[in-house]
Amino acid sequence: MIQHLLHISHVSKHFGGNVAVSDVSFSVEEEQIFGLIGPNGAGKTTLFNCITGFFPATSGDVIFDTKKINALRPDEICKLGMARTWQRVKPLGSLTVLENVMVGAFSVTTVAKEAEANAKEQLQVVGLNDYATKSAGSLPIGLKKKLELARVLATRPKMLLLDEICGGLNHTETDTILDIIRGIRKKGATIIFIEHDMKAVTSICDRIVVLNSGEKLAEGTPGEITTNPDVIAAYLGGGHHA
Amino acid sequence: MKQIAFLAVLAAVALALPLVIGENPYIIGILISMLMMAALSSAWNILGGYAGQYSFGHAAYFGAGAYTTLILLTLYNLNPLFCIAVGIVVASIIALVTGSIVFRLRGHYFGLASIAVAEVVRLSVLNFNFTGGAQGILLSDVALWDLDLNSKTPFYYGMLLVLVVTLSITAYLRRSKTGYYLQAIREDQDAAASLGINIYFYKNKALLLSAALTSVLGSLYGLYIRFIDTSAVLDLRLSIEIILTAIIGGVGTLWGPVIGALLLVPLAEILRSNLIGDVLIKAGLVSETSGVGLFLKGSLANAHVLLYGIITVLCILYLPKGILGLFRRKK
Ligand SMILES: Nc1ncnc2c1ncn2[C@@H]1O[C@H](COP(=O)(O)OP(=O)(O)O)[C@@H](O)[C@H]1O
Ligand SMILES: [Mg+2]
Q1: Closest Cα to residue B57, out of B240, B315, B304?
Q2: Residue A92 in 3-state DSSP?
Q3: Using CB atoms, which residue from A54, A73, A103 is nearest to B181?
Q4: Minimal Cα distance from A82: which residue of B?
């Protein structure tokens, strides 16, 4: 039987008259890497904000692990095992890299020693161990993205929502992050992956939803998406500006 | 190891000081003010420095302690320690009401709301009868155990104790989950929430702790001075002095507020007591009736808050991490 870990049902989000997300539905299975793509302003980040409790959805339901989470706060959702990263990275600037990851680790323990051990393990996973004592604000963007990843991993999530975790990175850095994500999935986590870089998305995702102007344009395997005429017209063909 | 030795020497000096100074009430008085400001600023620092929530109304919690204690003592002559405990309860209620309303809002409303709450408290106290209104409250006599409460020495040790407790709590917090969470909230609230931190709960926790410690200091101050009115214990000026002491010493550091108090309290005392004017006049450098002499003896004596302000501006411009920041190695 297929396990749906996350079920998005007719979710809409309006900002005044601006419809950022319009009646979007899809389901994510356990241990899937699920891609969410679409041009700038398509509503991808807004949908993440609705799922993770930062903006309440105007209508529709978000069901995680059979539990309706629409009305929960972000911290409650994190405690249920769903963690997200930020497209515009949010390092805790005056804390060290290790301390940043420890903050994430404290969501699963109250003991500082355990949090530190967990944090060091995650720094190892993303390859930031040499930077443990550096202040987080001083890292270059590529390493800040890795820090975002280490920090959410420390919350030991069942599901990760990664918002353009490869944005602004070069090819080598992107490949490193993609390898890390494959490793995370192998350990049993489920991932939703917002990305612009089509090559990255098609190489790593099992299934993809395409958003355009807040609406769901298409859903399918990478093969189906790259050959879908609507998608090509609206997104892939459109001068590749996205 | 070096740190422990340093702390041991510091503790020994602090404990022995009254014995060395003997019964010089003037010097002991200044030392008490230093300890009190160091503790007040440290208590403020838990909320302002670590959680990043600048309270401009800590006088409300100080006044809550002082008024509760003196009212209970003058009316019912209860045990002073019990009065201090009731003061904590009163301050905590004010803190919880403030926090539960303001911390639900996003953004920097807390600073403004803290001033508003403190003003409401001050005006209420001024207008109620049981608080003595504009007259204030005079405490004629107080007794606890065999202590000689007419001498200043017990209050020196009392303030020292509260300072040590406040610093110990801060030192413990820094290395605990709560301390990490408060700093995460200070650095980025959305990031903090996304990492499982209940922002509302932890801000209230910091506020409550800070307010409770502040109220104990208010109670001690009331017992020490034995006369309080709103301008002494509920004034905005006090709230500002507490913040400036922390800023000048180093916000969000363990020792910053202590260093700030060690520097600023004597400085204020020098200005207030006309020391500069007296010395210059005695040395014959300035005539007492000249413009400069009048300025030194008159205006400058009231200028310590202004001077704090000037030092703070200089600190923000040139020492954003406070005086303690000078001695911190860069990471
Ligand atoms: N907090 C907000 N307030 C008002 N409008 C918003 C807000 N966040 C996003 N939007 C709007 O929602 C739309 C979708 O934005 P976003 O979700 O960031 O797109 P994407 O992540 O796909 O690039 C945009 O038109 C944007 O201006
Ligand atoms: Mg986005």
Answers
A1: B240
A2: coil
A3: A103
A4: B194
Which candidate in B174, B178, B194, B329 is best for mutational testing of the A interface (most A CBs within 10 A)? B194
- In this prediction, residues B134-149 reach a mean pLDDT of 74
Per-residue pLDDT tens over the stretch A155-212: 999 999 999 998 888 888 888 889 999 999 998 999 999 987 777 888 899 999 999 8
Domain edges within chain A: 1-43+56-71+206-237, 72-189
CA dihedral A218, A224, A225, A228 (to 10 degrees): -70
> Which residues are within 5 Å of ligand 2 (an ion), measured at CB?
A 45, 87
Domain A72-189 sits in which CATH superfamily? P-loop containing nucleotide triphosphate hydrolases (3.40.50.300)
Query: How many whole angstroms separate alpha carbon B22 and alpha carbon B19?
Result: 5
**CA–centroid distance, residue B9 to ligand 2 (Å):** 56
- Are the Cβ atoms of B183 and A94 closer than 8 angstroms? yes
Q: pLDDT tens across B272-294, in order?
A: 776 666 777 777 777 767 776 66
In angstroms, what is the span from residue A45 Cα to ligand 2's centroid? Answer: 4
Angle between helices B25-45 and B256-272 (to 10 degrees): 140
Of B20-29, B186-195, B241-250, the range with the lowest mean pLDDT is: B20-29
Say if CB B306 and CB B300 are below 8 A apart.
no
Domain A1-43+56-71+206-237 adopts which CATH fold? Rossmann fold (3.40.50)
Q: Is A17 in the pocket of ligand 1 (CB under 6 A)?
A: no
Asked if residue A146 lies in contact with residue A122, where contact means CB atoms within 8 angstroms, the answer is no
**Looking at CA atoms only, how far is residue B245 from chain A in angstroms?**
21
Could you read off the pLDDT of B97-131 as tens digits, one per residue? Answer: 989 888 877 667 888 888 888 889 888 877 877 77
pLDDT digits (tens, 9 = 90+) for A85-109: 999 999 999 999 999 999 999 999 9
DSSP class per residue in B68-122: HHHHHHHHH---HHHHHHHHHHHHHHHHHHHHHHHTTS-SSHHHHHHHHHHHHHH
Question: Does position B222 have pLDDT exceeding 70, yes or no?
Answer: yes
What are the sequence ranges of the domains in chain B? 2-235
Pocket test of ligand 1: the residue of A11, A13, A15, A209 to mutate, having most ligand atoms within 8 Å of its CB, is: A15
Spatial contact of B227 and B235, defined as CB atoms under 8 Å apart? no
B-chain residues near A134 (CB < 8 A): 331
Q: Is A102 on the interface with B (CB under 8 A)?
A: yes
By three-state DSSP, how is residue A127 classified? coil
